[in-house]
Design brief:
single chain, 786 residues, alpha+beta, Immunoglobulin-like, Rossmann fold, 4 domains, 12-stranded mixed sheet, 7-stranded mixed sheet, 16 helices, 40 strands, 22% helix, 34% strand, globular
């Protein structure tokens, strides 16, 4: 039944997508042209840049032929190596439009070090067409304008997309033309670290070509849009969802209209934007422009070429810029609702609260409303001053990227290895297996030696000994192949580690959460399997424990073609989910006995939690409801006001209640590039070895029996998607008005998504809630102040 269901799902996906190929996820590229085949061209990621370990869009343009031709239905397939053990095929149903070239969107999740991919068209009539790419572009099937750049990178590069903002694209290089220099001291304040601003590249995107799926934006550090851009409503909704769960959006509201409101949706009431006019240069803008800083006027390739030709090497120069005395802009004011949510203004031209920049949180994301074009704040002709102004606009929203350490294999991949190693349990071989092997070898030796000699001699067929030897060896091979499936069996298990983040409303209710999970499947016996199903649209992909090391040690230069594939390719259909965005449907796959295969996934789920955090003179009172039955809280902590505090939670009437002593952990929040390490939402500070402080006695006693199953909080906080959300929580809780309650749960956990399977299950839940202050009233009464 599972195989039949899978076939029907693929077929229905094809039929559904054929009907809407020119609608959702598709763009119109005009009349037919380009390559002579069905695939006209392929556009990878953001100007060819793809962030490793994060979802990115691939736009495949299909040639519909002449106006009198019939439409062709089929499927677009993107195939690439996922890690050393497996590859993946992303499949999207599509159809051509006669007389037009239309775009169809496929989302990919590529590992670092992966240098190759294939793009295929598989028609319903059996026709196939294939293009092959390496890390620099098209390497086979080249014809017309079919080539496209494919550049996959790890944490060293920060991709920013710009829509309708020309000065941004002029001030920063393309993300595929970056040189990340190593300097003695960088923006993160660590000797020998990378200057992260040199790794920021801007991809210019047309408004009509913005993806309509929120997962497609995960590879961006920020999205900068002209408020009046005519983007499709589906794209605006996708951006809103991405922002709510950790994305950074900059809205340039310099036009006379109110188009910027469309991008904020229900949160447009956080700010008010005035009419255009001349304003004096703000003092904080003058100070930022005048600070000395590095800016490289030419790309690395141009610098290296000039040096090779014997010219003077153009290095980074220390430059200070002067802001224009007067500039045209629109002043932005934060409303009372915005102030309650933590919105503030910058670039204030006068003593009033209005500024040319207003910024603040939306969910777990960050939104900047910009009332001036940065090109207009600098009177010079070169782009250095414009870039300096844009850096000030972006620096708060990019704090997570600027403070994230560079990992060759990517911080996400490192986290996957850590969490899987924490829960991985593979049964040991029974000693009986050894005796089976010994007995089999002795029996084969006896059959080939004395048994053959005695039996054949009595039958007078000694000349047939070579034939009987072949028979016995053949029998031995068959038995050796069959017996492990019979004898070497164990209970299969599914280990799963997830991080679930939720934001509490004004009433303390947490209605939905974002899940980042890693699943490891140990097959005790061979068979067919499928990832667990949950509610909503999920985005699944295969992942290795340490893909960077695997590629570096055994893959070869061209995308790991020299590696040995242990598993068959993972077949993943991308299709719409009723009542929501599209997601992935992973097909049933075969897995041999005693093999371990791992996956990562992300999804938005409905939650029924309630959270309350109250502050008194010495700490915080915490109350969490709705965690579910049979749950054990192994440990918990509270982040507020720039520091962590341990909290011991005890079950009380269906809720978990406890109190945190302020400052009981030597931890500081990641608040800016100067203090961040990229490890979850906090890092060690203060004296000592830098190791995490010992658990309080009560917490240690409660978790003594499961200490080996505890997952490192920093690793759980670096799973794909969880890192940006954690950085946002840390930034917004530093003022003390909001707090993060982080808990590790085990036993009876529903994983926040309705998934139940045998094995080790560990869940980290992070709740972002407003802090209510408790102050003493008249006769010892307590009064809550929100």
């Amino acid at each position: 039944m599972r195989i039949l269901s899978w076939v029907l799902m693929v077929w229905w996906s094809c039929v559904a997508w054929v009907g809407v190929a020119a609608g959702q996820g598709a763009g119109d590229g005009g009349t037919s042209g380009g390559r002579g085949g069905v695939i006209a061209r392929v556009e990878w990621g953001w100007d060819g840049a793809v962030a490793a370990g994060r979802w990115a869009p691939v736009r495949v343009w299909l040639n519909g032929g002449g106006a009198g031709e019939t439409s062709k239905g089929g499927m677009v397939v993107v195939e690439h190596v996922q890690d050393l053990t497996q590859s993946v095929r992303w499949m999207v149903g599509a159809a051509t439009t006669p007389g037009r070239v239309t775009a169809h969107e496929v989302l990919v999740n590529m590992p670092v070090g992966m240098g190759g991919a294939k793009v295929k068209w598989v028609g319903q009539d059996g026709a196939e067409e294939e293009l092959e790419y390496d890390g620099l572009g098209l390497v086979s099937g080249l014809s017309g304008d079919g080539s496209g750049v494919l550049n996959v990178s790890g944490d060293s590069r920060g991709i920013v997309a710009g829509v309708g903002v020309r000065s941004l694209g002029r001030a920063f290089p393309s993300p595929t033309n970056l040189g990340v220099g190593w300097v003695g001291a960088s923006q993160v304040g660590e000797a020998g670290a990378t200057d992260r601003w040199k790794g920021v590249g801007v991809a210019t995107v047309e408004a009509g070509m913005l993806p309509v799926t929120s997962a497609a934006y995960q590879g961006l550090e920020a999205l900068v849009v002209d408020g009046d851009s005519a983007a499709p409503s589906g794209a605006v909704s996708a951006v809103a969802s991405w922002v709510r769960w950790g994305g950074t959006l900059v809205i340039v509201a310099t036009g006379e209209g109110g188009g910027w409101r469309r991008w904020l949706g229900d949160d447009a009431g956080m700010v008010e934007v005035g009419g255009p006019g001349l304003v004096d240069a703000p003092s904080d803008l003058r100070a930022w422009m005048a600070r000395e800083g590095e800016w490289r006027a030419t790309g690395v390739r141009a610098v290296e070429r000039e040096a090779a030709e014997g010219g003077e090497r153009a290095g980074a120069s220390t430059v200070a810029y002067a802001a224009s005395d007067r500039m045209t802009g629109r002043l932005v004011r934060v409303t009372a609702a915005g102030e309650r949510r933590g919105w503030t203004t910058r670039w204030r031209p006068g003593s009033g609260p209005e500024g040319l920049i207003a910024e603040g949180p939306v969910g777990l994301g960050w939104v900047v409303v910009l009332g001036v074009e940065p090109r207009g704040v600098y009177a010079g002709l070169d782009e250095g001053g414009t870039r300096r102004a844009w850096e000030d606009v972006l620096r708060v929203g990019l704090a997570g990227y600027l403070g994230r350490p560079v990992k060759q294999g990517g911080a996400h991949n490192e986290a996957v290895g850590e969490v899987l190693n924490a829960v991985l349990t593979v049964p040991e071989l029974d000693r009986g297996m050894v005796w089976w092997i010994v007995g089999g070898v002795v029996l084969l030796a006896a059959l080939l030696g004395p048994v053959d000699a005695v039996v054949l001699k009595r039958l007078g067929a000694g000349q047939r000994s070579w034939q009987t030897a072949l028979v016995w060896v053949g029998v031995g091979v068959v038995v050796a192949g069959v017996m492990p499936r019979v004898v070497r069996t164990a209970d299969s298990r599914m280990d799963r580690v997830v991080t679930v983040d939720g934001v509490a409303g004004e009433d303390g209710s947490v209605r939905e959460g974002y899940v980042s999970g890693v699943t490891g499947l140990f097959a005790g016996r061979g068979g067919r399997w499928e990832p667990p199903r949950g509610e909503g649209a999920a985005w699944w992909h295969g992942v290795g424990v340490d893909p960077y090391e695997e590629f570096r040690l055994g893959s070869g230069r061209r995308g790991g073609r020299g590696g040995v594939r242990v598993f068959s390719p993972l077949q993943v259909v991308q299709a719409g989910v009723e009542g929501g965005e599209r997601g992935t449907v992973v097909g049933v796959f075969e897995q041999g006995p005693w093999t371990y295969r791992s996956f990562a996934d992300q999804r938005v789920v409905g939650l029924g939690w309630r959270a309350k955090v109250e502050r008194d003179a010495g700490g915080y009172a915490v109350r969490i409801e709705g965690l579910g039955e049979g749950v054990s809280v192994l440990r918990a902590r509270v982040l507020a006001g720039g520091g962590w505090s341990w909290v011991t939670l005890a079950s009380e009437g269906g809720a978990w209640v406890g109190r945190a002593e302020e400052g009981s952990m030597r931890r500081v929040v990641v608040g800016s590039g100067e203090e961040s390490s990229g490890r979850g939402v906090a890092r060690d500070s203060g004296p000592g070895s830098g190791e995490e402080p010992a658990l309080p006695a009560s917490v240690a006693a409660a978790s003594a029996g499961v200490a080996s199953g505890l997952v490192d909080w920093d690793a759980a906080g670096m799973l794909a998607g969880a890192m940006s959300r954690g950085a946002a929580m840390g930034r917004m809780s530093s003022g003390g008005a909001w707090a993060v309650v982080e808990m590790e749960l085990s036993g009876g956990v529903g994983l926040g998504e309705g998934i139940v399977a045998g094995g080790e299950h560990v869940e980290t839940r992070r709740v972002f809630a407003r802090v209510a202050a408790l102050v003493s009233g008249g006769a010892g009464a307590e009064v809550r102040v929100d």
